[in-house]
Design goal:
Strand content: 5-15%
CATH topology of the largest domain: Rossmann fold
Number of strands: 7
CATH class of the largest domain: Alpha Beta
Largest sheet: 7 strands, parallel
CATH architecture of the largest domain: 3-Layer(aba) Sandwich
Number of domains: 2
Bound molecules: guanosine-5'-diphosphate, magnesium ion
Number of helices: 13
Structural class: alpha/beta
């Protein structure tokens, strides 16, 4: 690892930034070593205002289009904002994220492009714990003087949910109602939500879905998170959403669910990144050790 590269990244060199992020992504640089170079401590953001925001929801609901519009507004306001787009890596397309690159047009705008940085993470390539790799990349971007980091991730699958849970705040993006109400499978994700955006408000069923969501939140414990309506296509509700999201406080109900996911992610890293993992799996398969013995070996710091 090259300490100058890390310092250059912090001084605004984008090439050095990209390289350092790649090093963190593929595990050749640890966040601990970066902290040492920059003389920073581990942070535990419990901030009034967030520094990382996950925008999550099913594929096709319009997350990327919405983020594009939000980036424009925030960057125009002088906020230096980075986007980490987590690519679920479809083996068919190779996970090139081509679709999303096309959708994020904010970086083509000369006036604001200095305030925007975009990077995709191909989860397929990773052998370690993706959520914690993302957490480390977020931490580095914040050390490198980016004011805020947005994480775009699809909201299904445990690893994807944990990628959202590493952020200070979580926004769940939904589309118009499909007539099936608020399903149980979505409930877990909604439990983590500090805000919900119902996008595609230009289509019928969006308002109805927003009402359904509010009703289901009112049945739960604690305060209901804000539910907003937007159309990324017609650019309605975007300015309001941009300002509400910027000031978003954590809904008390989401905090515990988030820490639970973070704890599980750290536990998973311990296992996945253990140099003994392969040997232990072989021993398990051969019946030489029990699962509790394996856990004991893996857990020993
Ligand atoms: N009607 C309508 N379509 C939208 C809106 N926002 C996005 N789309 C379309 O929905 C599709 C998926 O958008 P995308 O941002 O890639 O969704 P993502 O998978 O959630 O990131 C694209 O064809 C967009 O043009 C909207 O507000 N209204
Ligand atoms: Mg997208």
């Amino acid at each position: 690892m090259n300490p100058d590269q890390v310092r250059d990244a912090v001084d605004g060199n984008r090439r050095a930034l990209a390289r350092t992020l790649t090093n963190i992504e593929n595990g050749t640089t640890t966040i601990q070593s970066v902290r040492k170079i920059l003389d920073k401590n581990e942070t535990n953001h419990t901030l009034e205002s967030w520094r990382s925001l996950a925008i999550t929801g099913a594929p096709g609901v319009g997350k990327s289009c919405l983020i594009d519009k939000l980036l424009k507004i925030w960057a125009q306001d002088g906020i230096k904002i980075a986007l980490l787009a987590i690519d679920p890596s479809s083996p068919r397309t190779g996970g090139a994220l081509l679709g999303d690159r096309v959708r994020i047009t904010a970086i083509d705008d000369e006036k604001i492009k200095n305030n925007i940085y975009i990077r995709s993470i191909a989860t397929r390539k990773s052998s370690g714990s993706v959520p914690l790799i993302v957490a480390d990349m977020v931490e580095f971007l914040l050390m490198a003087k980016w004011d805020r980091v947005i994480i775009e991730t699809v909201g299904s699958g445990q690893s994807e949910v944990r990628c959202a849970a590493i952020a200070d705040r979580i926004v769940v993006v939904e589309g118009p109602a499909r007539g099936d109400g608020v399903q149980a499978e979505k409930a877990g994700l909604l439990e983590l939500a500090d805000a919900v955006v119902v996008n595609k408000s230009d289509l019928s069923g969006a308002e109805k879905h927003a009402e359904e969501l509010l009703e289901s939140f009112q049945l739960g414990i604690g305060d209901a998170p804000p539910v907003m309506l937007t159309s990324a296509l017609n650019e309605t509700g975007i300015i309001e959403a941009a300002s509400t999201l910027l000031k978003l406080t954590d809904s008390g109900r989401s905090v515990r669910a988030r820490w639970r996911e973070r704890l599980l992610a750290h536990n998973e890293r311990k296992i996945l990144e253990s140099p003994q993992l392969d040997d232990i799996i072989i021993s398990l398969a051969e019946g030489l050790i029990s699962v509790s013995e394996a856990i004991k070996i893996l857990g020993g710091d």
